Amino acid sequence: MAHKAFQPVVELTRGETAESVHFGSIAVVDSSGKLVASYGDPKRVAFLRSTAKPFQALPFIEAGGDKHYQMTPKEIAVICASHSGTDEHVETINALGAKIGVAESALMCGSHPPFHLLTAKELILRGEEPSPLRHNCSGKHTGMLAFAKMIGAPLDTYLEQDHPVQQRILSAFAEMCALEISEIALGTDGCSAPNFATSSYHAAWGWARLVDPDQLSKTRADACRTITAAMTAHPDMVAGPDRFDSALMDAAGGRIVAKAGSEGYQGIGVLPGASGENSPGLGIAIKIADGDRRDTIRPVVVLEILQQLGILDHELGQELAEFGPVVEIKNWRDLVVGEMHPIFKLETK
């Protein structure tokens, strides 16, 4: 029987009664392209949004951009980030911009209040408007500008789809996901950069290759390892305080790479050996149908997937218990009134 695109993944209860249900789809793929497990329709197409950021950094690193600008792992991590706009994030991007020789005014990502609430409050108290550097995508844009400058391409059109930087990004993303460029749907992201839509299966395959790149060329494999090593060494740069991607990578100690995207997307890369000797590298792509605007559903789903795959051991589960897979729901008086829990079972292949 054919799968519906989205199936129930998380239930919220009040007392003993189910109050709401969130739907989603999941694909788990190894680096050879084998669909290891799925839930819902793995052929369902969706935009990766910020989950694509490690791939958007890939051709720059592959071309030697990190060496050209003598970038630190911390700076590599922030060009793959949806950072929280803290002072540390801004300082890191400022330092990178100085190395590259591009000013904040060159960033075309726009601006929004920092995701980090304390930082946002401090800006208000100082009467300071959020700058483009506080934008969660400012690291990615700085990386794109660095790439453009390195190859002698125009800086003022770096977001145009036909710009050499964007063409190289699209080509690298297609190759990583084992697709032709014509098979990828294009759109414009919230930060005005081009973005990509593909099936959960192909996105998960791309993530599997990112963390298990042995079958790729040496140059590309080295670039993949540089990116994943930087993200896992500096998870605080990839997201920020109290955010799931940072917490998961920090707790996993280099075994897992995580990158969320807007509208309920999540990419996970499980490095080879993460669940025991000779365990394969895996890519996981998750899409929550309603967009998960409060960012509470994906952590529950991710932790349940890792548990079902035998990757979430007791110690890791304890460190991440606040995120799931079962989370108490409290009211404004801090009384427990229900819970949020997963209600899916992966179909293994």
Overall geometry comes to globular
Backbone structural class:
alpha+beta
Radius of gyration: 20 Å
- Summed up, the helix count is 13
Low-confidence stretches: none
How many β-strand runs? Answer: 12
Secondary-structure map:
Blueprint: E1 7-14, E2 17-30, E3 35-39, E4 45-47, H1 53-62, H2 65-68, H3 73-79, H4 87-100, H5 117-126, H6 138-150, H7 164-176, E5 185-188, E6 194-199, H8 200-211, H9 218-233, H10 235-238, H11 244-252, E7 256-261, E8 265-270, E9 282-288, H12 297-308, H13 314-319, E10 327-330, E11 336-342, E12 347-348
Antiparallel strand pairs: 1-2, 1-11, 2-3, 2-9, 3-12, 4-6, 5-6, 7-8, 8-9, 10-11
Describe what you observe in this structure:
With 349 residues, the protein is α+β, with helices and mostly antiparallel strands. The protein has 13 helices and 12 strands. The protein has helices at residues 53-62, 65-68, 73-79, 87-100, 117-126, 138-150, 164-176, 200-211, 218-233, 235-238, 244-252, 297-308, 314-319, and strands at residues 7-14, 17-30, 35-39, 45-47, 185-188, 194-199, 256-261, 265-270, 282-288, 327-330, 336-342, 347-348. Strands 1, 2, 3, 7, 8, 9, 10, 11 and 12 form a 9-stranded antiparallel beta sheet that branches. A hairpin with a 3-residue loop joins β7 and β8 (265-270). α1 (53-62) crosses α7 and α3 crosses α6 (138-150). The longest helix is centred in the middle third of the chain and has 16 residues, at 218-233. The model has no long low-confidence stretch (mean pLDDT 97).
